[in-house]
């Protein structure tokens, strides 16, 4: 599907985008890869690092509707990764999250439809499930925008998405924070020892996106099943890896955080297909607006969704093994 095709990645210089582009260059033969983002410095660094003639760097913002429609011409596949992702940032500036994660996403979907893109894969997060913070709320609406477009569009474009939890060593994640604190001989900060989070490596996130590209139908949302750990065990594992004597400092749950994260709701499970490594959440079948008010289904309602509390829980040794498999950790150790 990718070979000899034009690929566009919004937010392509971020943690996901940069690793995804390396994967495309290594394992596939795309005709062209367009990196559409607003960070000039990151584009400069990526251009120099990869130095590949099929990469096309375009400075722009998904908030700019005119620019988006212009850039999406003659594109075959779109991977929509651009977003405001930091929970504290979105809490302090929620309207900025609305402009990027909601309005920007609508621009991407509309431009893909008008330019007859073959397939769009939008990237969402566990924080979109039962959201309690502005980032999660805007990502939840990103999903709803995709579902609405999939349900109502008359274009041949397929709109689908993925939803995953914390990606290890991604921008703003806790591992770089812990390592920086260890380097500076500071206590590592633990919000709540019993807090759990999904643990997903970037290669697994990329596998999920490629699985969605290959298998996604209109309105599908794919979820990668992932193990989890407590924040306390994650802290213990990283201290052991670096043989650090730094202490742990419990600071309490911060504004906008959950004790446990969810990837699939109880309601989602009613319309999900269960694979060995994935959940496939199907779009609502009804296309008649009136039927939404008058028809339901007599499904057995699940007792709980798929959460970081009830998924596979890794031991400290298993966490260490997982962390030591990360390229970033290996480079730091060297």
Globally, the shape reads globular
CATH topology: Rossmann fold
CATH class: Alpha Beta
Largest sheet: 9 strands, mixed
Mean pLDDT, nearest integer?
Answer: 93
In what range is the share of β-strand residues?
15-25%
Question: Order of strands in the sheet with the most strands?
Answer: 3-2-1-4-5-6-9-14-13
Assign the CATH architecture: 3-Layer(aba) Sandwich
DSSP helix fraction: 40-55%
Q: What structural class is derived from the secondary structure elements?
A: alpha/beta
Gyration radius over CA:
20 Å
Count of alpha and pi helical runs? 13
Number of domains: 1
Q: What is the CATH superfamily label?
A: NAD(P)-binding Rossmann-like Domain
Order of helices and strands: EHEHEHEHHEHEHEEHEEHEEHEEHEHH
Distance between the termini: 38 Å
> Using DSSP, what is the number of strands?
15
Low-confidence stretches: none
Explain this structure:
- The structure is a single chain.
- With 334 residues, the protein is an alpha/beta fold.
- The chain has one domain (6-165, 199-225, 261-307): NAD(P)-binding Rossmann-like Domain (Rossmann fold).
- The protein has 13 helices and 15 strands.
- The chain has helices at residues 15-27, 40-50, 65-71, 87-92, 94-114, 134-152, 174-183, 202-215, 231-241, 266-269, 291-294, 316-324, 327-333; strands at 6-10, 32-37, 55-59, 77-80, 119-125, 158-164, 188-190, 196-198, 221-224, 228-230, 248-250, 262-264, 272-274, 278-281, 306-307.
- The strands form 4 sheets. The chain has a 9-stranded mixed beta sheet, with helices on both faces. A two-stranded parallel sheet has the order 7-11.
- The protein is globular.
- The mean pLDDT is 93.
